[in-house]
Structure prediction request, 224 residues.
Amino acid sequence: MENWRRMMDTSGLYDITRTISPALAVWPGDTAFSYVHNLRKQAGDAVNLTTITLSPHTGSHADAAYHFIDDGPSPAAMPLAHYLGPAHVVTIDRRSGGIVPADFAGHDLTGMERLLIHTWVSDTPDGVWPEDFPYPTVELVDWLAARQVVLLGMDSPSVDAFASADLPCHHRLWAQGMVHLETLVLAGVPDGVYELIALPLKLDGVCGSPVRAVLLRRMYWLRR
Prediction:
């Protein structure tokens, strides 16, 4: 019988996740992360036991369709395979406003299945809320969908403008069969093609999920 073992070169491992702590900035008006100790070893208990409070949109996260569609799925029912696989990391110069296809001129996007957009927002400290951040346009979403892209990842906190009430890109991404990640941190990641792993938790009845998002520079199968 043949056995296959998955091997990864960890020298090419990038953690692209914001650290969740009480100091982490959240969307204005959303629930900040906090925790309390129910048990403490220092107090003579057998273990340390904590209870956490946070929004599903804390830090690096996946929006579920239920976030913007009443009958949309929660994280437990989102298309899991979209959140792992080949991903292009591309740095663009745009500082604010809508991101359009022209922002990617000169980049090699051959075979693109997932796109992670690196902007200045990745350099923002965890405790600082980015102001006037860049966000995708419907034009960009349709351009990506025509190229069979299944996931769009942003270092910005939303795929729509901060003041948007109708969330056109949230809706267009889902209508095009795509999922999205928000508030990634791509500082220090060279542009290129990676393997993305950014699975949402299997949460039911809620509108999103934090993810532990990582990129692997090289991944291969070793037969033994």
About this structure: The chain is about 5% helix and 30% strand.
